[in-house]
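Explain this one:

_____
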Amino acid sequence: MIMPKRKEWTYYKSQTTPKGLYLPKDKVCIAPNDRGFMLGDGVYEVIRTYNGKPFCLTEHIARLKRSLNEVRIDCPDVLKIEAIVFELLKLNKLRDSDATIYIQITRGVWRRSHTFPTEPVLPTTYMEVMPLTPIAEDTKRGVSAITVSDFRWGRCDIKAIGLLANCLARQRAKECGAAEAIFVRDGVVTEGTHTNLFGVLNGELVTHPKTNHILAGITRDTVIKLSHNLGVPLHETPLPETKLYELDELFLVGTTVEIMPVVSVNGKLIGKGTPGKITKLLQKAFNDYVRSGL
């Protein structure tokens, strides 16, 4: 028997729907001249829920506000996002499930121009939620990665929707049989295509400092806090690519991957080629931290 397709409810607000509407996904129509569609002129945010509860919602909204401010998009409705999130979870029957929430805000609809609109334009807001299946096996056994040249723009700290460079790098990783591509800029390891990176050397953590060359993740901040609680020394300092293979452990962190061990890079084993002691310690601490808030 063919099961009926689940209706996916979204939220959409634009020049043509100024009041904002909850719509089935297949009913949403993006204007051809939307600057997000035409120019990648917008920002986004991804939030995860555990059993229907958004993780670090306040922090994610704060980062979204920062991205909007950095690209000079004035969107007062960002204050309503929390209420919209919970309504979408309700409409999609995901109030008791693990899910991801995607939020995208563009500068709005205007003729194609490399300069901003010359009159007030309503930003376009689009939000959707999707069920999420945790990748438990990978978090236990670890994944492989490759390194690629970091050819992205110089403002990686803005969560901008223009992700072509990330997509090209991630596709290259996929074609190499790897789970992630790790960017290297001027001989320094920065981050993954959708993850931050932590290494372990002699029992101490190292991760790239918050600069314009990385998108400082919410999960990254959580891991830093947990490492302090556990008494694990941590250094926010550049990691030379030449030191990558000297690490005892390596792991990725992100909204959907949580804490993901990396057991090989470019076909070379990291440490013993298995998830390490500190990685496992932080995985448990993270899981306990998440569940304590449910």
Q: What stands out?
A: The radius of gyration is 20 Å. The chain has a mean pLDDT of 95. The CA atoms of residues 136 and 179 lie 14 Å apart.
